[in-house]
Amino acid sequence: MRTARKQRGASALSMLIGVSALVACVTLLLKLGPHYIDWQTMKAVFDGLPPNVNTMSKDEIRESLRKRFRVNSLRDFDLKNILTIERSKTGTVLIVQYEVREPIVGNVDAVLSFGDRYEYH
Question: Domain boundaries in the chain?
Fold first, then answer.
């Protein structure tokens, strides 16, 4: 009889803590997930650039990326702010770097930093 008394189940406090943790995780997923999806889409856009990037001018590269961003619904990005194009004798390097600040609750924000380097020879 004594063991049955100890096995009553979760208390109301432990249930409240469990539900709160689940709500916090779902909230973070819903707020931060779209930024990671945008990043994966952006990586696919850069991976899909034609191999003749070396022969294109900087304006042609930006215009090609602008069109690809539009097709893939990446409208919140200004290429002037996130893209650096470096030319050298060996090839062209595209450097993408940006940060996103997402408010979580009250004055608590999450800052997500994304960046990559694409080399074309």
Answer: 35-120
CB under 8 A, 24+ apart: contacts of 88-95? 90/121, 91/54, 91/119, 91/120, 91/121, 92/53, 92/54, 92/61, 92/119, 92/120, 93/117, 93/118, 93/119, 93/120, 94/46, 94/49, 94/53, 94/61, 94/118, 94/120
Contact between residue 18 and residue 9 where contact means Cβ atoms under 8 Å apart:
no
CA distances from 9 to 15, 16, 22, 80 (A): 10, 13, 19, 58
Q: What is the pLDDT of residue 98?
A: 97
CA distances from 11 to 5, 6, 8, 24 (A): 13, 12, 8, 20
Ranges of residues in the chain whose predicted pLDDT is under 70: 1-7
> pLDDT tens digits, residue range 66-88?
999 999 999 889 999 999 999 99
- Taking the C-alpha atoms of residue 45 and residue 50, their distance in angstroms, rounded to an integer, is 10
| CA pair distance 77, 32, nearest whole angstrom | 16
